[in-house]
Amino acid sequence: MTALVWGTNATKAFFLMSAETAEAVNKKVEKAKRIAKRTLRLPA
Known about the structure:
Number of helices: 1
Strand content: under 5%
Largest sheet: none
Shape: rod-shaped
């Protein structure tokens, strides 16, 4: 029973961590896209 509860908590923690990481990665990607657009707009 304890192992099951621990497993559920670990799974929850893992999914929360994954969601936060995915959000952080998404923000970095959006930022990179904006920077890339701005860079491409400037004359070489």
